[in-house]
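Tutorial sheet, problem 5. The two components below are modelled jointly, 514 residues in total.
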Amino acid sequence: MINHTQSHLAYLKKEKMQRWSIHGIRLGILVGFIILWELLAYFNIIDVFIMSCPSRIVETLFDLASGGELFFHIGVTTAETLIGFAIATVVGTFFGFLNWWSSKLKKISEPYLVVLNSLPKIALGPILIIWFGAGYNSIIAMTVLICVIITIITVQNAFLAVPQEQISMMQGMGASRFTIFRKLIFQASLPTTISMLKINVGLSFVGSIMGEYLVSKAGIGFLIVYGSQIFDLDLVMTCTVILLILAGLIYYGVSLLEKFSIRYKG
Amino acid sequence: MSILEFKNVSHIYHSQQGEVNAIDNLSFACQEGELIAIVGPSGCGKTTILSLISNLIKPTSGEIICKEKNDKGLNIGYMLQRDCLFEWRTIFKNCLLGLEIQKNVNDDSKAYVNNLLEKYGLLEFSNKYPQELSGGMRQRVALIRTLATSPKILLLDEPTSALDYQTRLNVSNDLHHIITSEKKTAILVTHDLSEAIAFADRIVVLTTRPARVLNIHNIDLKESTPLERRKNPEFSKYFDKIWGELNT
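Model answer (structure tokens):
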């Protein structure tokens, strides 16, 4: 047990209060928002038909859950997102690696990457539907398209950002190009690669929901579109809340991955 | 018997902006066990000389005779300005890097690395990560990483210039101690003239670019460590003489 001076104890206490106040205010905003929403609905200040309200969202949630549909739709969207995310990450990292390996290839591909990166991917929706059919394949393709270009660009930049001096050091030891990649480049760019994964999770969600808007028979995006078509705003709001929770969970999962893969303190 | 010899070596760099004549008709020899310092105005092509020795680049013309060099150039250890330690590896693992690359990690080589770490006061930091060490300690680790593959010749490219002054004097002293007690041949490139005089047995003074040998000085100071040598009255005479040559 370390003995702290009076002033250090006071400092620690102040820091602790600070942390708790941040957590408290965070939670307070959420609870306050829900209560305000519910009260406005209760006193008919807002129209629940177009705004819905927390109690009706909870009710809808239970209805969906008791029918078993809820987990089916969540499963579909999660699967599409994760499959798209995995394909985009693997393919993007591979091309990023190729562009690191060959500076000629990097120069050749540069204008293509720039243009494809700026292209609004949703414009390709109709083409995807014709090519891949009106089903999961199109949605996954949409997810991959949204993530893959930015993955290539991020990965190649992370690989190329490794200091030349460290590469020279390994060359001086007689290391081959591939050994340099394995022992240095890959490890050194791991922090950037992981933060890219975090961004990709969000983008994959954009892709799968966008895909479901265009063409689908199941999934949270499908429920949202369906809900809006029959003017069931309770359903739309409920699905939006579910999306928020899903996004939070997946982000948390990648953060865990980050903790395990980067053991040293960066 | 010289361990390394430059015979009329020239090197030209090519780029979009044109060609740069980095070194021109350079000749000098280095004996086994000798500590040579190469000094010259900044940008005169000193690093080019080390890159040529370690076979990272080929000379445009001339010949580099090195009896310790096999086709991979493995008997040469290159130590750079920055320590280049990998933050994700422990000190011990960092020291094993060269051995891993040469696929030569075994109980003997591990014991050798441990022995080096112990001899030079770093054994207790074996399992620490580089960022927990001071700049001077990191540079000593970098030297041990270089020594781990048992090179005959060490190339030191301004190994102390990224450190603050006080640390620099101490690290220079440590490097000298380690290199002489391991009986290595070393070529030090630096623009710090006083470091060169305190460190080396012989100093090769180069001209401005394209680098040519201006003069070669034998440093005859009997003190055994750089810090002691700095106190010798002869030290400042060498300094004045070479300083004069560099600034003509």
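Marking note: Chain A has a mean pLDDT of 90. Full credit if you identified this.
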